[in-house]
C-alpha cells in the first residue's frame, strides 16, 4: 500500500499545489469543477502528496510522486519554480513545509533525504532609495558594495549588508547611463549623457579621472579583466578602447586672468603662455614648474613665441606692442609698436634672428632681431598687406619661406615670405578665420572659422575635412604623427579628432572657454589654455575607435577572459569584436527592433540579447546559433546571467523583472527546462537594470521609480542536504524557524540546526520493540518546546525538544485497557493554536482529539452520515468512522474553533470535512470528484484550502492540485437541519 505523510501544524501555515499525471489511453472530458475552486495548479506528472501555504498566503508549495517540488502563485495558479533535477530529490517527495518567515522551505523524500531550499519573495529583501530614476547598477566583485547610477547625475555607493550609503559621487552633468566595477574591485567606471566616462575610487568615492569619450551620450562602459583597458559605446555609433590607468590632467601655475596665448619650444621642454593679466609665463613641461614670469606689456598679451634656440621670448599685446625678453634671466630686450591695433600673431623664423608678426591692422611684418634693444620707432624689414579687416592668426612653415594666415576677410592664405606674394587662397569661409595650422609634415593645413574647422591639402588646396563644433572655435593644432587634430572651442572643450574618419576621438573640459591648444611632440599630450586662467596638460587615453553601428549603441558586454566585446545597437545588430585587432568576427542575427541589452554567461557559453522587439534571444556564443527565444510584455532594458549560468533575468519597460531557466551543456540536446519561466518581480516604474549576486539567487534591480531593490529567487539547488538512512516522511520547522524536525521510516525523529545544517538531536521515537515503525508525522507545539510524532505503530508521542526525553505517549487501541486509541497507523497530527489539543488521523478512518495535559482522548470525530447511509454493520467497526476512507491530513483553523480533515473516498474521490473542535461534531463533509486528497493546507486567514490530489481515475491522464474556498460549514449545517 502507498503510505503518505501528514501535514504541518496550523502555525507553520505552508502552501502547496499539484498537477498532471501521465497515463496511457485517451483523456475523457473532465468533470465540471465544484463550486468554490479558486485555482487549479497544473504541472506535476504524478499525484501530489504534500501541499503547504506560505506564511503570507501568496505561495503554494507541492511535493509529488514525480520526485519534484513546485512553487506556485496562490492567486493566479501560475507555476513559479520547479525544484528538481540532479540536485533535487531523486525519488518520491513525501512532505514539504515553509519556514515561519517564508524564506525557506523544507522537503522530505523516499531518497532518504531532507532538503532545505531558498524561497522567492514578492517583496524586496532590501531597498536603496535614490533622488531620481536609477538607470544602471553594478555589484562589486566581493558583493559588499552596490553602485547605482542616477538620472540626476549622481552615483550612490551602498553597503549591501546593512543598506547604508557609503558615498555619493558627483561629477556627471546629466544622467548617468552605466556603471561597472573593475575585476579587482578598486575602480568604478561610469558613463553619462554628458559624453564622458569617469573613473572613481570604490574605496572612498573620490574621482580619479574623466574621459571626454564620445561626441554623443555614452551608453555603456566596461573594464577589462586585467584592469589595463576600458571600453565604451555611445549614441555616436562608436566602440572605443581606452588605456588604463588614465592619467589625471596636470595644470601649470595659473595666470591672474584668462590665458590668451600658448606656444611650445621646438623640443617640447618649455611652455610659454600669455595672459590677459599682461604677463608671460615660462614653465617646464616635464614637471609643470614655473621657470620665469615676464612682465612689461601694458595691455593683455595676445600672442607668444619662443625662439628655436630657446634664448628669446616674444609677445604681442592688444595695444599693438611687440616685446622681446631674454629667456635666461627675463631681461626685457626690446619693446616697440608693431601694429596699429592688436598683435594677433608672432613667430620666429628657423634661423632665430627674424620674427614675423600679424596684426588686426591686416598686415604681416618681418622684424630683424639685434643683440641690443632698438627704439620703439624701428621699422619692419618687410610689410605685407595680408587681409582686409585684420590678420587673426599666423603659422610658419619649417622652411621659413612660407607663412599661413587667417583673416577677418574669411580667407586662409599661403604666402611666399621672400616675395610677399600669395601662393594660394583657401576660402571663402562662412566666418572670419580665427586660427590656422600646418600639419607636422606640412602636407595639410587647417583653419578655424566660426563653428567650423576646415582641413585642406596644402599642395592643391583640395578640401579634405570639415569638423563641426557647437561653439566658436578658437584654436587648431595637428598631432606630430599627422593622424589627429586638436581644436579649442568657446564651449570650454578641447577636442581631439581622427583625421582619417573625421570622428571625434576624445575631449577635455575646462572651466572656461578654450583660447589656445597645442599638441606636444610626444603625440600623447594636448596642452590647452583657457579663459579660466589655467593651462592644462591632458593625456590622450584612446587606443582604438571602431564604427560599430550607424546608429546609437546601447549594449556592451565583455567576455569573461576579456578577449572579445559584444555590442547591441539601434540598427538591430548584435556584433562580436576582437579586442586585439578590432575585427568584427561574428554577428548574432534575429533582432526585429533596436537591440538594447546584452549578457554573457559566466562560462562564456551563452549570449543573451534583447531590446525593443520585446524578445530575449539566447545564442551559443561559439557559433551564434539561436538556442531559445523568450517573449516579454515590453521592451527589454537589461539582461543578466546568474553566476552558475542556470538563470537569465531581464529588466523590462513595463516595470517587470522576468527570469528563465537556461541550463545548457554544449554538444548536448537542449534541456526541456531551458527557457522555462522562473519567478518574476515588479517595480512601480520602468525596470532599467538587473545584476545577480554571487549566491545565484539574490538579484538587484534598478528602476525609474528611484529605487534599487534586492530580491530573492528560488534556487533550484538546495542550500542544505540532511541525509537519513531511510525515507523521510515528514518535515516541520519550529515556530522560530531555527530548527527543522524530520520523521523517518527508520522510526526516528531528528532535529537539525537550520543555519549550521547540522543534526543536533536524534530521538528514537518509534524504534522499540523491533522492527522500527515509520514516523509519518512530526509537529511542533506552538511554543516550540515540544515535538509530537505520529507512527505506523498506531501511537503518538510527545517529546521535549531540548532534551529529547519522552513527555507523554498517546496510546494505541488495546482491547479492555484503552479502546479509544487508533487501531491502525497514524498518518497525521496537528496541534491546536493554543497547544492544548492534538488532533490525529489514521488509516482506521478515525479522527481523535487528545488532551495534551494527560494524554486522554477528549473526543472522537464521528461522521453520522456514514452510518445513516445504510452501510452494513461489518463495513464500519467501532468506533464510528470520521471518513469514508483513510485520513491523510489535518489542520486547525487559525482561531482553533474548526478542524479540517482530508482523505480518500470510493471511486478515486477526495473527501474534505469540517469539524467543530468544541464537541467534535461534523459541520461539513463532502466528496469531490477530483481524485483522492492526500494533503491539505490552510491559508493564514483560514479562507482558502489547498489540496494535493491523486488521479481522478485510471482513464484520466491529468491530475491537478486545487485551491478552494473554505467550506461554509455553518450554511451547510443550517441547510441540512432545514431538510
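Q: What amino acid sequence fits the structure above?
A:
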Amino acid at each position: 500500500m502507498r503510505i503518505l505523510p501528514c501535514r504541518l501544524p496550523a502555525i507553520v501555515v505552508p502552501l502547496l499545489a499539484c498537477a498532471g499525471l501521465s497515463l496511457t489511453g485517451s483523456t475523457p472530458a473532465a468533470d465540471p469543477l465544484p463550486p468554490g475552486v479558486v485555482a487549479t495548479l497544473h504541472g506535476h506528472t504524478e499525484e501530489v502528496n504534500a501541499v503547504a501555504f506560505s506564511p503570507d498566503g501568496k505561495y503554494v508549495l507541492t511535493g509529488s510522486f514525480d520526485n519534484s517540488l513546485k512553487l506556485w502563485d496562490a492567486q493566479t495558479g501560475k507555476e513559479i519554480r520547479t525544484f528538481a533535477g540532479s540536485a533535487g530529490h531523486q525519488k518520491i517527495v513525501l512532505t514539504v513545509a515553509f519556514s515561519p518567515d517564508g524564506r525557506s522551505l523544507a522537503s522530505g523524500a523516499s531518497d532518504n533525504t531532507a532538503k532545505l531550499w531558498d524561497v522567492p519573495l514578492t517583496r524586496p529583501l532590501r531597498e536603496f532609495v535614490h533622488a531620481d530614476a536609477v538607470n544602471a547598477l553594478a555589484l562589486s566583485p566581493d558583493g559588499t558594495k552596490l553602485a547605482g547610477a542616477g538620472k540626476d547625475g549622481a552615483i550612490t555607493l551602498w553597503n549591501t549588508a546593512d543598506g547604508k550609503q557609503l558615498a555619493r559621487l558627483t561629477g556627471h552633468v546629466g544622467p548617468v547611463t552605466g556603471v561597472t566595477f573593475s575585476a579587482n574591485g578598486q575602480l568604478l567606471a561610469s558613463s553619462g549623457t554628458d559624453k564622458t566616462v569617469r573613473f572613481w575610487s570604490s574605496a572612498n568615492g573620490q574621482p580619479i579621472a574623466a574621459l571626454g569619450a564620445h561626441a554623443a551620450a555614452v551608453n555603456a562602459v566596461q573594464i577589462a579583466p586585467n584592469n589595463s583597458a576600458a571600453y565604451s559605446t555611445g549614441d555616436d555609433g562608436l566602440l572605443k578602447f581606452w588605456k588604463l590607468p588614465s592619467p589625471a590632467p596636470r595644470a601649470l601655475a595659473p595666470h591672474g586672468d584668462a590665458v590668451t596665448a600658448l606656444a611650445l619650444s621646438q623640443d617640447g621642454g618649455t611652455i610659454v603662455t600669455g595672459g590677459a593679466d599682461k604677463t608671460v609665463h615660462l614653465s617646464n613641461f616635464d614637471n609643470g614648474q614655473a621657470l620665469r614670469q615676464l612682465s612689461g606689456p601694458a595691455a593683455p598679451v595676445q600672442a607668444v613665441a619662443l625662439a628655436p634656440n630657446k634664448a628669446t621670448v616674444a609677445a604681442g599685446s592688444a595695444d599693438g606692442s611687440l616685446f622681446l625678453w631674454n629667456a635666461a634671466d627675463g631681461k626685457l630686450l626690446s619693446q616697440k609698436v608693431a601694429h596699429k591695433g592688436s598683435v594677433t600673431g608672432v613667430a620666429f623664423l628657423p634661423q632665430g634672428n627674424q620674427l614675423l608678426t600679424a596684426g588686426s591692422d591686416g598686415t604681416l611684418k618681418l622684424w630683424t632681431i639685434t643683440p641690443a634693444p632698438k627704439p620703439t620707432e624701428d621699422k619692419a624689414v618687410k610689410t605685407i598687406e595680408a587681409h582686409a579687416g585684420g590678420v587673426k592668426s599666423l603659422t610658419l612653415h619649417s622652411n621659413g619661406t612660407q607663412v599661413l594666415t587667417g583673416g577677418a576677410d574669411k580667407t586662409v592664405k599661403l604666402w611666399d615670405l621672400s616675395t610677399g606674394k600669395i601662393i594660394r587662397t583657401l576660402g571663402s569661409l562662412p566666418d572670419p578665420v580665427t586660427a590656422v595650422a600646418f600639419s607636422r609634415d606640412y602636407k595639410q593645413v587647417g583653419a578655424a572659422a566660426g563653428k567650423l574647422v576646415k582641413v585642406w591639402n596644402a599642395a592643391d588646396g583640395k578640401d579634405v575635412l570639415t569638423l563641426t563644433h557647437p561653439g566658436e572655435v578658437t584654436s587648431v593644432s595637428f598631432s606630430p604623427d599627422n593622424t589627429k587634430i586638436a581644436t579649442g572651442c568657446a564651449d570650454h572643450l578641447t577636442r581631439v579628432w581622427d583625421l582619417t574618419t573625421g570622428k571625434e576621438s576624445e575631449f577635455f573640459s575646462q572651466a572656461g572657454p578654450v583660447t589656445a591648444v597645442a599638441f606636444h611632440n610626444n603625440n600623447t599630450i594636448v596642452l590647452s589654455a583657457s579663459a579660466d586662467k589655467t593651462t592644462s596638460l591632458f593625456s590622450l587615453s584612446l587606443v582604438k575607435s571602431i564604427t560599430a553601428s550607424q546608429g546609437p549603441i546601447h549594449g556592451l558586454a565583455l567576455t569573461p577572459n576579456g578577449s572579445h566585446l559584444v555590442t547591441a545597437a539601434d540598427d538591430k545588430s548584435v556584433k562580436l569584436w576582437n579586442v586585439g585587432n578590432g575585427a568584427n568576427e561574428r554577428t548574432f542575427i534575429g533582432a526585429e527592433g533596436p537591440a538594447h541589452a546584452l549578457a554573457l554567461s559566466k562560462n562564456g557559453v551563452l549570449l543573451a540579447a534583447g531590446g525593443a522587439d520585446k524578445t530575449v534571444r539566447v545564442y551559443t556564443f561559439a557559433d551564434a546559433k539561436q538556442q531559445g527565444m523568450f517573449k516579454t510584455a515590453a521592451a527589454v532594458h537589461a539582461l543578466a546571467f546568474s553566476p552558475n549560468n542556470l538563470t537569465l533575468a531581464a529588466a523590462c519597460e513595463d516595470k517587470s523583472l522576468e527570469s528563465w531557466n537556461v541550463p545548457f551543456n554544449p554538444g548536448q540536446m537542449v534541456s526541456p527546462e531551458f527557457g522555462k519561466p522562473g519567478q518574476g518581480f515588479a517595480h512601480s516604474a520602468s525596470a532599467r537594470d538587473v545584476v545577480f549576486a554571487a549566491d545565484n539567487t539574490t538579484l538587484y534591480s534598478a528602476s525609474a521609480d528611484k529605487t534599487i531593490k534586492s530580491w530573492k529567487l528560488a534556487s533550484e539547488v538546495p542550500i542544505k542536504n540532511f541525509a537519513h538512512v531511510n525515507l523521510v516522511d515528514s518535515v516541520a520547522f519550529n515556530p522560530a524557524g531555527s530548527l527543522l524536525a524530520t520523521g523517518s521510516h527508520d522510526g526516528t525523529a531528528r532535529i537539525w540546526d537550520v543555519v549550521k545544517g547540522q543534526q543536533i538531536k536524534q530521538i528514537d521515537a518509534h524504534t522499540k520493540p523491533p522492527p522500527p515503525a515509520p514516523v509519518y508525522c512530526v509537529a511542533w507545539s506552538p511554543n516550540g518546546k515540544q515535538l509530537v510524532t505520529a507512527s505506523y505503530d498506531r501511537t503518538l508521542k510527545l517529546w521535549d525538544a531540548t532534551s529529547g526525553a519522552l513527555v507523554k505517549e498517546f496510546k494505541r487501541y488495546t482491547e479492555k485497557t484503552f479502546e479509544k486509541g487508533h487501531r491502525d497507523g497514524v498518518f497525521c497530527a496537528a496541534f491546536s493554536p493554543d497547544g492544548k489539543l492534538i488532533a490525529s488521523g489514521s488509516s482506521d478512518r478515525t479522527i481523535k482529539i487528545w488532551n495534551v495535559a494527560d494524554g486522554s482522548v477528549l473526543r472522537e470525530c464521528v461522521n453520522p452520515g456514514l452510518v445513516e447511509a445504510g452501510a452494513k454493520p461489518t463495513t464500519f467497526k467501532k468506533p464510528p468512522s470520521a471518513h469514508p476512507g483513510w485520513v491523510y491530513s489535518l489542520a486547525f483553523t487559525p482561531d482553533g474553533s474548526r478542524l479540517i480533515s482530508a482523505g480518500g473516498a470510493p471511486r478515486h474521490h477526495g473527501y474534505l470535512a469540517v469539524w467543530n473542535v468544541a464537541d467534535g461534531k461534523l459541520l461539513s463533509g463532502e466528496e469531490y470528484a477530483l481524485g483522492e486528497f492526500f494533503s491539505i493546507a490552510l491559508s493564514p486567514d483560514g479562507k482558502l484550502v489547498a489540496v494535493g490530489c491523486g488521479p481522478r481515475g485510471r482513464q484520466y491522464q491529468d491530475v491537478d492540485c486545487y485551491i478552494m474556498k473554505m467550506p461554509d460549514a455553518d450554511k451547510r449545517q443550517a441547510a441540512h437541519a432545514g431538510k
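Q: And what stands out in the fold?
A: The longest strand covers residues 898-905.
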